[in-house]
Amino acid sequence: MKKLLLSLTAFALSTAIFAQSDSAVARFNSTTIDLGKIKQDNPTTATFEVTNIGTEPLVIEQATPTCGCTIGDYTKEPIAPGKTGFVKATYNAKNVGMFEKRLNVKFAGYDMRPITIKGEVLKNEDAAATAAPATEPAKIAAPGAPVLQSTDAAAPKKGEATSTATPAKKAPVKKATPTKKP
């Protein structure tokens, strides 16, 4: 019994020593970007800004989409402490209708964290009747979402560039006209 207890204690201590810290090392300006209404067959890109809030350079190892309809890209070089990098998600917009797609972002030495793009794909004739949103809503001003720690994050810092996606206007509703029977 003593050997079992000693073994469990040694295992717990070694796990605690080698486990990753729960402190935050990166923060996204937003973990969800709404692309609004987009035209069918018009690939649209959302750019997520990620800030290194740790003390060591931050490396993004991968940004893996959860389906083949989305392509991920990211900053390849290490992000210095206090500096920003990006993760881009490009949606191919082949299918008409609402969508919500995720990318799993893997930072070197840390668990994967999901980011999300969403919106609505309109048929080409429907999209022509509406104003098109920006094709790349670069950075969404939203409360910062910590990647590796759940805390309330501060608003964007002075001097940070932010913009918002402008949703397209709704298409006018056409009233049906009665037809006369012969």
Attribute tags:
5-stranded antiparallel beta sheet, 35% strand, 182 residues, 9 strands, 4-stranded mixed beta sheet, Immunoglobulin-like, mainly beta, single chain
Strand order of the largest sheet: 5-6-3-1-9
The CATH topology name of one domain reads Immunoglobulin-like
Fraction in beta strands: 25-35%
Mean pLDDT: 73
Residue windows where pLDDT falls under 50 for at least 5 positions: 13-23, 132-182
What percent of residues adopt helix (DSSP H or I)?
10-25%
Which superfamily, in CATH terms, is the homologous superfamily of one domain? Immunoglobulins
Dominant shape:
elongated
CATH domain class name of one domain: Mainly Beta
Second rung of CATH, namely the architecture of one domain: Sandwich
Supply the number of helical segments. Answer: 2
Order of helices and strands: HEEEEEEEEHE
What would you call the structural class? mainly beta
Number of strands: 9
Radius of gyration of CA atoms, rounded to a whole number: 22 Å
Largest sheet data: 5 strands, antiparallel
Describe this structure in words.
This protein is mainly β. It has a domain at 23-146: Immunoglobulins (Immunoglobulin-like). The chain contains 2 helices and 9 strands; from the N terminus they run αββββββββαβ. The chain has a 5-stranded antiparallel beta sheet with strand order 5-6-3-1-9, with no helix packed on it. It has a 4-stranded mixed beta sheet with strand order 2-8-7-4. The model is unreliable at 13-23 and 132-182 (pLDDT under 50).
